[in-house]
Amino acid sequence: MIPVGFARAAWIVAAKDLRLEWRTWETLSSTLVFSLTVVVVFQFAFGLGTVRELGAARLVPGVIWTVVAFAAVVGMLRSLQLERARDTLGALFLCPVDRGAVYVGKAFANLVKLSLLQALLLPLTAVLFGHVLLPILVPLGLVCLVHGIGLTELGTLFAAVTTRLGRGEALLAVLLFPAASPLLISAVKCTAAALAGEPLATVSRWMLLSAGLDALYLLVGLATFEFVLEE
Amino acid sequence: MTAPAESTEAIRATGLTKRFGSVTALDGVDLVVGAGQAVAVFGPNGAGKTTLIRLLTLGLRRDGGLLRIAGLDPRSHDREIRARIGLIAHPSFLYDDLSPAQNLEFYAAMYGVPEPARRARQLLELFGLAPRADDRVADLSRGMQQRVSVARALVHEPPLLLLDEPFTGLDAQAAERLGELLASLRRRGRTLVLVTHDLRQGLASSDRWILLARGRIAGEGASGTTDVARFESDYARLGGAAAGPSA
Q: Most exposed of A76, A111, B137, B242 (fewest Cβ within 10 Å)?
């Protein structure tokens, strides 16, 4: 047997999770329907007149990140719950790999799924709220990526805690949202800057804070993932 | 750290203890299993059988005692030990929405088996599952799922196989096949530790047995010389028969 390194093990776990999603489309379809519903409801609540009056940069970031945060709860919980059904997480922990790699692999697969959702959500908000997308695609994509990383790192860890306790979305939301609030506030500020066409340098402190939180959440996840799932 | 030379002892546990809060699940268990031996572990519900298996798989941390697997200390050779263990238990450890081939390929890759896809196909052929290789596991019968589960446990050819109630939920035909497989694994020199309520099957599949009760070893003996009828009667008195089927 060839020893499986950290990165390789994380990639094998991520590929398996993405393959599962590809076969079922369960997470993406449910989060997409939820996101579509919420965005449409917000659009009807505000109306195009209000959006034009206040500017998309003041309304749309809140809509995007509210939707993303709630969709993340559903998606990340499912990624851990499917491991519980046949105790596959127990089998994963038996494999001769670093258990932190299982966490990183699952978080990476969750990030890919969240990024796909964002890739569908952004054009939808552009159409419904009448803001431009193409000229701001790169900075907006960067904002989504930096904040998506932190959200999935934290969400994957808390989904593990919730799954270990045999609880559902309610507990995950209670754990995740307060802990992720600095990240979500930063996400709203940076998205607003991107939508207003301002360079990201104007929100560099928020971006740096988020990058720092990404690193912190990763370290916390690596240090604790094994123990939160241990009996 | 370098691993010691291959040990003739597959398992050496001395004073193995595990507590869950105020409950002592295992209380100073001593167990030595030689390489290539097959040991059946009997005991009523709550005797500590599954806890013993989970300690041996390093899925739980022990609260006391000493444990060596193939002469290796779990504290310093955790991954080397995990690479040597295969586990078959009541949960299948399979992803329902993946096919048998995808499940086996995934686990083969996680164990660092060269050419995981080839190994998966090889095992599917061996277990007569090739025609259903690409179906969803959820669409297979319980017996077929159990065969995939056994193939999964053997994907990295572990020298030590731990089996926790592997016969549970199997029909007579599937149980017979599993019994034959265990016999063939014994012939090939694998070390087996089999936890079961099924006394006859357990005795037939082992060289010796131990009986756990309240977290301690309450008896042990050679399987070949054990009077099955008397053993069943003693076991029933201990509460084992009430806990599950004994034949």
A: B242
DSSP 8-state assignment for residue B86? E
* Domain chopping of chain B, boundaries: 9-88+160-243
Helix (H) or strand (E) holding B195: strand B191-195
Q: How do the domains of chain A map onto residue ranges?
A: 6-228
Q: Tell me if B96 and A85 make a contact (CB, 8 A cut-off).
A: yes
Q: Does B82 touch chain A (CB under 8 A)?
A: yes
Q: Answer whether A87 sits within 8 Å of B91, measured CB to CB.
A: yes
Nearest to A25 by CA among A147, A91, A151, A117: A117
Within 8 A of A3 by CB-CB distance, chain B residues are 79, 112
231 residues of chain A, pLDDT tens digit each: 888 999 999 999 999 999 999 998 888 998 999 999 999 999 999 888 888 888 888 999 999 999 999 999 988 988 888 888 888 998 999 999 999 999 999 999 999 999 999 999 999 999 999 888 999 999 999 999 999 999 999 999 999 999 888 877 788 889 999 999 999 999 999 999 999 999 999 999 999 999 999 999 999 999 999 888 776
- B164 in contact with A at a CB cutoff of 8 Å? no
Give the number of other Cβ atoms within 10 Å of residue B24's Cβ.
18
Helix axes A56-84, A99-129, angle to 10 degrees: 140
Alpha-carbon gap, residue B179 to B193, rounded angstroms? 14
Nearest alpha-carbon partner for B83 in A9, A71, A223, A113: A9
For chain A positions 168-227, those within 8 Å of chain B (CB to CB) are none
Alpha carbon distance, N-terminus to C-terminus of chain A: 30
- The count of other CB atoms within 10 Å of the CB of residue A221 is 22
Q: Where does B9-88+160-243 sit in CATH, by number?
A: 3.40.50.300
Facing residue for A97 by CB, picked from B59, B110, B136:
B110
Please state the ipTM of this predicted complex: 0.90
Quote the CA–CA distance of B9 and B82 in Å, as a whole number.
16
